């Protein structure tokens, strides 16, 4: 790629959409490859048994709490406001705003950690996996309480990622994605070599992983001449703008994670005890193309869309959004086909070792067939939501995500009436596919309608209109002078 220049210090480079997407795709690919290595080791050690199911279920509450307050929601809310503040009020005020956001995340995530530790037993027993045995529920509760430290560390790291992304510097955030799996693999190695550690090895490995993910981004943050101050002012107008965007944005993303909790609730009652582990493995394989297309391109596209929206260049914004989103959606169709055709041999080659038996392999393939149908809708929805966030509209994605959750829940009840036995595992991914596809269509219609309405407010169109009026007035003045002269 000729535009991908290596001069000038990569940690300080401002990347274009293409460069940023390429870099994030490369990092995501590396991360997913390491994730496959991690999963191969995990499956060989724990298979699809009770320990594996407890581990997968235990991650649901920490993931939901993190995404409710921080996660991608914070990045999408922070970047447009930070860029506007830096342009209008200067760097000093922009860094003051950043300090306020960091302090707020620290306090909120600490409170969430304490609350989560208190409610974990009731949540696991009555909401998450009520269909599990008492011993499995107790293990899930213990692992959940350990993993609840993960959202606090991830939340602080997300603020750093948002700062770097706002400066269009994607290298270190991309590297942090790849480094994440190193900690998890280390935990699995400990579980293999140290007797008695068992499932606690990868559980504590997740905490090591998120610490590594935060630390690797610190050099890039220091090079931005960041100025931190311990300030606390809820009346700060910039903080209020971030919170106004964050609330619906966080709710929109958390709705998707509530969907995962709903899925886990239904799966806990399935007769096949390997169902949750099989779904996790299938979702991990489907997540690779979904992340490469939706997450990498979407993350690199958002700062550019935000700059265009701030400058009221709506026509240019619509053209860029249509080109990138159209190209990205086109990529998902062959990717979904490859999942269908190559899923079974890939699962057999990668996972069918040690404690992961042929039955777990067949069950994972069934789930993957369903997830393949969900791929286009998931990737499209991720990209389309960036257009609304750039316009500082987080309520529309929240509304469409809520619509998708209702559809998903309804399809779970509906499909379970007709699909039984071993095939019942396909209900979960098929419900997701129907919900994600219909949501993507709805978001596309709403975004294009919104941008069409904004054409008259486009800065270029307004300049053109002023020029036309000026030329018209000049012509009328010339005619009037000529008439007076005659």
UniProtKB/TrEMBL annotation:
Assigned GO CC terms: plasma membrane
Pathway terms, separated by semicolons: Cell wall biogenesis; peptidoglycan biosynthesis
GO molecular function, one term: lipid-linked peptidoglycan transporter activity
Predominant subcellular localization, coarse grouping: membrane
Classification via CDD domains: MATE_MurJ_like
InterPro entries: Lipid_II_flippase_MurJ/MviN (IPR051050), MurJ (IPR004268)
Entry similarity comment: Belongs to the MurJ/MviN family.
Function: Involved in peptidoglycan biosynthesis. Transports lipid-linked peptidoglycan precursors from the inner to the outer leaflet of the cytoplasmic membrane.
Protein name: Probable lipid II flippase MurJ
UniProt organism field: Dictyobacter alpinus
